[in-house]
Structure formats: C-alpha cells, structure tokens
From TrEMBL:
A single GO cellular-component term on record: cytoplasm
Catalytic reaction list: S-ubiquitinyl-[E2 ubiquitin-conjugating enzyme]-L-cysteine + [acceptor protein]-L-lysine = [E2 ubiquitin-conjugating enzyme]-L-cysteine + N(6)-ubiquitinyl-[acceptor protein]-L-lysine
EC number per UniProt: 2.3.2.27
Stretches assigned to the RING-type domain: 10-66
Subcellular localization: Cytoplasm; Nucleus
Region (Disordered): 329-360
Keyword flag Zinc-finger: yes
One GO-annotated biological process of the protein: cell differentiation
PANTHER family attached to this UniProt entry: E3 UBIQUITIN-PROTEIN LIGASE TRIM36-RELATED, TRIPARTITE MOTIF CONTAINING 55
A single GO molecular function term of this UniProt record: zinc ion binding
Protein name per Swiss-Prot or TrEMBL: Tripartite motif-containing protein 54
Amino acid sequence: MESLEKQLICPICLEIFSKPVVILPCQHNLCRKCANDVFQASNPYLSTRSGSTVTSGGRFRCPSCRHEVVLDRHGVYGLQRNLLVENIIDMYKQGSTSSRPAPEEKQEQPMCETHEEEKINIYCVTCSVPTCSLCKVFGAHKDCEVAPLDNVFHKQKAELTDCISMLVGNNERTQLVIIQLEETCTTVNENGRRQKSKVCETFDHLFALLEEKKGEMTLRISSEQEEKLDYLRGLRRRYSEHLESTAKLLETAIQAMDESEMAVFLQTTKPLLHKIVEGTNTSHIDEVQHGYENMEHFTADFELQRRALMKVDFTTRKKQELLPVLLLSSSSSSSQSDQHEEEDGDDTKHVFSFSWLNQK
C-alpha cells in the first residue's frame, strides 16, 4: 500500500491527489487546482486588472517531465479528468480507513465442513483448497500433498499483488487507447470536412447544372465518414466497457488484499486471479490500423466543358486509365478492419470524370 500511495502523490502539493484529477497530454496527473496554480505562475501576463486570472488559452510545462502543455480556450478546465486515478484514490482512502487500529474483534477461524470441531489449519496443494489436519490423516486428502497455511497465504498474496500491478498498468494502457480513439474521431471529422470543402469549392464553378451532382458526391464522403465514425465509436464503447469491468475487478482485488484471515483469503483468491489474467487480455478487441482516418482518396481535379454537363456520371475504370479526377472509393481504405474490407479483385475505382467536356 505504501508503493501505491507514492503513485498517488501530486508533484505540486506533495499530497494525495485531490479531485478533480486531470491527466496531461504527457500522461502525468495533477490536481486541477495545482494545474491552475502552475498555469497562473507560467502566464502572469494573463491576469486581469482586478487580480483574477484568465484561464483560457496559454501554456505551461509539466512539473514531472517538463513537457509543454498547450491549453485551449477552456484553459485547465479543458484538460481531461482521470476518472481511473480518482477511483483508485477513493478505494485507497477506504482501505486506509479500514486498516486503522480499531477495537480488536478477533475473527473466528473457519472450521472444517467435514470435521466440524477441527479448524482449517493446512492447505491441500493437490486439490488447491484449505483443509484440516484430520482430513489429511484419514480423510479425503490423506493421499494429497499439503503445505502450511501461512506459506501458501504469503505466496498467493504476493501473486495477487503482482496481478493488481499488472491490472493497473493494463487499465492505463486501455485509457490511452480510448484517448487515441477520441483523437482519431476528431481527425476523421476534420479530414471529412476538409474533403467536402474541396469538393464544394470545385462544384461552385459548375453553376446550377452541377448542384445535383455536388449533393450526390458529398453524400458519398459523409457516408464513409459516418461509417468510420460509427466503427470508431463502437471500438471506444468496447474499450470503455472493458475498462469499466477491469476497474470493478481492481476494486474487488484491492478489497481482497485487506482480508487478514488466511483461509478466507485463499478461498477467494484462486478464481479472482483467473479473472484478473482474463481481464488484462484485450486481444479480442479490434485495433485501429495506421491510416484508418485517412480520407485523401476523396480528391478533386476538374477539367470540363459545359456542353457535356448533362452526360456527366460516375464511371468505373481501371486504375491505369484514370485521368486527374475526383476519386470516390466504394471500399474503405486498405488499413481498415477486415469487417469493413470489400473484394476489389479487378482493381477498380469509382471515378467522377469530365472527359466528355473536351469533346467539340
């Protein structure tokens, strides 16, 4: 618990983080109040005449790694809260309260179910259950390998401690993935808006006859944009659900660490360890491949003559035959997940071409 407490100390106030806790882009944490104090000290020129401080915009350096943090118009209130750390702080404080000396209430040692007058005092290694001496002498475990209860207790408690550390690290990585997914959603939105803007600028030069085509082609972009966003939101939801389940598992594991009775502890840790190992595995959740947010295949380069506008339509051509045109791919980018890929064996693309306009 001492090592956990060290991880929960704010580098500014040197106390346990006070909520709300904010996470910086460099992944270090600060109390929001301390972050605001550092921001004010780094940006004294933002102070108003009345002495109050404007907290919108500006920048400061992380006190832990000196990474420069650039704030948006919301100031320190635009920094994301680290709910995972806040939950760990709550559980730590509860654990610290429960571990304080209290009127001693001696907990009764569990008794053997088979020999009701015998206390559970040994551990059957073969069957992985605590038991009593009589069960070893002439009972169900007489042919089993046994070990002192305290030896197994300390061994499994150390194992659970390691698993808790592994689970905390896994949760931090999962939270980082969620942040990256949110950034990818923003990038997809920006790229989609950028490409639609390019298409609209080109269509403005084609006047009224191109308005219908403009609507059709921007709809193509919006369709793929929403498809990608739906996929990313679905991934974010799955990672969030995974994080929520492992956070609950972490709470259960920390509570189990407070169990002082060895037999009770050993009865509950075996399935808990198995659940923790399963909880650290995220291989069943898709990962966004590099370049998934790219929407550069929506490009516009129009060469046209007005007399052929009524004949303009989308055509499917081989890549080798393509002129400088507006490409609207019917399939997702090559880095997209398998469930979004479509067969493209003949190497074709949907092409918006104005080649007819060159005819006299």
